[in-house]
Design a protein that fits this description.
Number of strands: 18
Radius of gyration: 42 Å
Helix content: under 10%
Largest sheet: 5 strands, antiparallel
Structural class: mainly beta
Order of helices and strands: HEEEEEEEEEEEEEEHEEEE
CATH architecture of the largest domain: Sandwich
Strand content: over 45%
Shape: rod-shaped
Length: 299
């Protein structure tokens, strides 16, 4: 009987040991997971243009003295975003070389700073007038670089740019506006500048009669002409404008009169509104006018 009991206990121990007691391995537990969606990219775009190069002259003006051209180079554009918000600043950098002997000039403008833009809101449109002050006729051809910097909603860095060429700006000076009439003589400033300069004269004689000079019939030329004072059949004053931009960087004025009456001759550069006046006192035989520094407004 004792042998039988021992055998049963042994079998029970063997069964428990072989069928996964406390030391038996267990199967791994499988926990389902949800995949994380990738972060959508945030894209910043720039669209811009220079709107007043050689084909748009409306923003260039000249000082009355004709010594400085004030030119507003207008740049328009928009900064837009897709995919999320951004906070950005925008800088416009305009670089041009006035001529080969001078270092490049740089002008910087900032349309906006730390501006937050959201998608589908129209972006951030801008119009910037970059002021330029240069001697008349100076080329302001160059490049405008638009730089956008900032951060986006994903914690990323925004750094995009666009380059715009600026061409033909040295040809933006308005055309001459001289209109010839009985008392106005129009003279060319050279190729491409027909009727740029105008000449007018007022006179006073010994009887205190006054009046404007009359352009003599048949005496209108591209570079000059003549005026009559009292007698329309006589020539009292001859005027000539000489283009010496190539050799002296000047327009010259020459005049000769056959009178001793008082007169004031006015020559105006209609592109720059600069006027030179020449006066002869009453009773003084008129001396020749040879002004070789008259207009420093080339070309």
């Amino acid at each position: 009987m004792q042998g039988a009991r021992y055998s049963t206990a042994l079998l029970t121990a063997l069964f428990l040991f072989g069928c996964g007691g406390d030391d038996s391995p267990t199967a791994p537990t499988m926990v389902p997971t949800t995949p994380t969606a990738p972060t959508a990219p945030i894209v910043v775009t720039i669209t811009a243009q220079v709107v007043n190069n050689a084909s748009n002259q409306g923003l260039r003006t000249l000082t009355p003295q004709g010594t400085v051209e004030s030119h507003n180079l207008r740049v328009t554009g928009n900064v837009d975003v897709m995919g999320g918000n951004v906070t950005i600043s925008t800088t416009l950098i305009y670089t041009f070389t006035p001529d080969g002997s001078q270092p490049p000039a740089t002008i910087e403008e900032n349309p906006f700073s730390n501006r937050t833009i959201a998608p589908n809101t129209g972006g951030a449109p801008f119009t910037v007038d970059i002021p330029i002050n240069v001697p008349p006729g100076t080329s302001t051809d160059g490049i405008v670089v638009i730089v956008v910097n900032g951060t986006d909603a994903n914690g990323g860095t925004v750094n995009v740019s666009q380059e715009l060429p600026v061409t033909g700006t040295n040809t933006q000076r308005p055309a001459g506006s001289c209109t010839p009439d009985a008392n106005t003589l129009c003279m060319d400033g050279g190729p491409g500048s027909p009727g740029r300069f105008k000449a007018q004269v007022d006179w006073r004689d010994f009887d205190n009669n006054t009046g404007p000079g009359t352009v003599t019939d048949g005496q209108r030329f591209n570079d000059g002409g003549s005026f009559s004072f009292l007698d329309p059949d006589s020539i009292d004053l001859f005027v000539r404008l000489s283009n010496n931009c190539g050799s002296a960087n000047r327009f010259w004025v020459f005049a000769a009169a056959t009178t001793d009456v008082e007169y004031t001759l006015r020559i105006t550069d209609t592109q720059t509104n600069q006027t030179r006046s020449y006066f002869n006192p009453l009773g003084t035989p008129s001396a020749p006018i040879q002004d070789t520094s008259a207009f420093a407004t080339c070309p």
